Amino acid sequence: MANVNSQVSRLDAKSTNSGEDLSSTSAVLGHSPIEFPEITKGSGEGGAKVISVVNQKGGVGKTTTTINLGAALAELGRRVLLIDFDSQASMTTGLGIKPAQIKEQYGSIWYLLNDSAANPADFIVKSNVPGLDFIRGHADLAAAEAAFVSEIAKEHKLRKILAPLLSIYDDILIDCSPSLGTLTINALTASTGVLIPMECEYFAVLGLGLVKTTIDKIRENTNPSLEVYGILATMFDRKTAHSREVLELIYNEFPKELLDTIISRTVRFSESTVKGEPITTYASTSPGAISYRRLARELISRGGSK
Ligand SMILES: Nc1ncnc2c1ncn2[C@@H]1O[C@H](COP(=O)(O)OP(=O)(O)OP(=O)(O)O)[C@@H](O)[C@H]1O
Ligand SMILES: [Mg+2]
User: Fold this and answer.
1) What is the rounded CA–CA span in Å between residue 21 and residue 6?
2) pTM for this one?
3) Distance CA 71, CA 129 (A)
4) Nearest one of 71, 76, 72, 80 to 51, comparing CA atoms
5) pLDDT tens for each residue of 281-302
6) For a pocket test of ligand 1, which of 22, 57, 63 has the largest count of ligand atoms closer than 8 A to its C-beta?
7) Which end of the chain is more exposed for a tag (fewer CB within 10 A), N or C?
């Protein structure tokens, strides 16, 4: 762990070629640096935080964040469960499950949604990272909208599935699909809070309002205590002024929600997906891995994880 911590300190102090430190929101915007406490073990108390990783915009880093934040939390000694709640099942693939295995309905979260007698504990798969478990996705999740249309309390299906697992885990992360339909409503209803990855690109900012409106509707209707754990700036490009401008825009609009940790754009994320493992193991000392470890510590220190 000392090794990990020293890497974090190095990133915190890292400078670009131009001599500028661009490793965090505070560094980019010229605010005072923020340090997060070192945490080296899980709370061990049970009663998991449930975090929906949400944005209706596609390709902003939801799946990448779910996998790598999950792996970083597990590295801290926490018990972590990931739910693949997207019909693309990219989280499941990203954790090394072969496409042929994903075709099987039994074993997927889709099966659990459809069979209330099934035991969720039987569907948990261990990843290659100690302490990091997951329940895999399935293509038929795409049919959820139509399949559950006439069901009573359809928004609460995932909450009921997760209820018996809350005492087993410290953190449960749900990788949502790029929509704000039935599945995402289920995820938000089952969650204690939301993490919103946001690509550092102008059009992405415009979509944030829609996410906030959905969160407000969920608070009014199915989950009054739903929190926003943070907005995570992803795919930050150190070389462009545009990324910096977008970050400033988000900060001006959402100063409390914007997290200090920034995820930079790097090809290592796509490479690690192909390898079917988190960046924290595939490229353990890379800036991407270090940033997700910092995110884990930031979320814990903000209360977005115990
Ligand atoms: N920080 C990053 N730098 C470079 N590439 C990234 C980064 N984060 C994610 N990617 C890549 O961008 C693509 C989209 O990322 P990801 O699948 O995590 O987004 P998503 O929001 O889950 O997409 P979808 O909405 O389709 O579910 C992937 O190929 C991923 O490897
Ligand atoms: Mg995804």
Assistant:
1) 17
2) 0.92
3) 7
4) 80
5) 999 999 999 999 999 999 999 8
6) 63
7) N
Nearest CA to ligand 1 atom 13: 59
Q: How confident is the model at residue 72 (pLDDT cuts 50, 70, 90)?
A: very high
Atom of ligand 1 nearest to the CA of 269: 31
pLDDT tens digit string along 126-181? 999 999 999 999 999 999 989 998 899 999 999 999 999 999 999 999 999 999 99
Task: Determine the Cα–Cα distance for residues 303 and 306; give it in Å rounded to an integer.
Answer: 6
Rounded Cα distance, 87 and 98, in Å: 15
What the chain holds in terms of domains, given with CATH numbers, is 39-225+267-284+297-302 (3.40.50.300)
Q: Distance between CA atoms of 267 and 276, rounded to whole angstroms?
A: 15
DSSP string, 90-123: HHHHHTT--HHHHT-STTBHHHHHH-TTS-GGGG
C-alpha–C-alpha distance, residues 129 and 78, integer Å: 11
Cα-to-centroid distance, 77 and ligand 1 (Å):
26
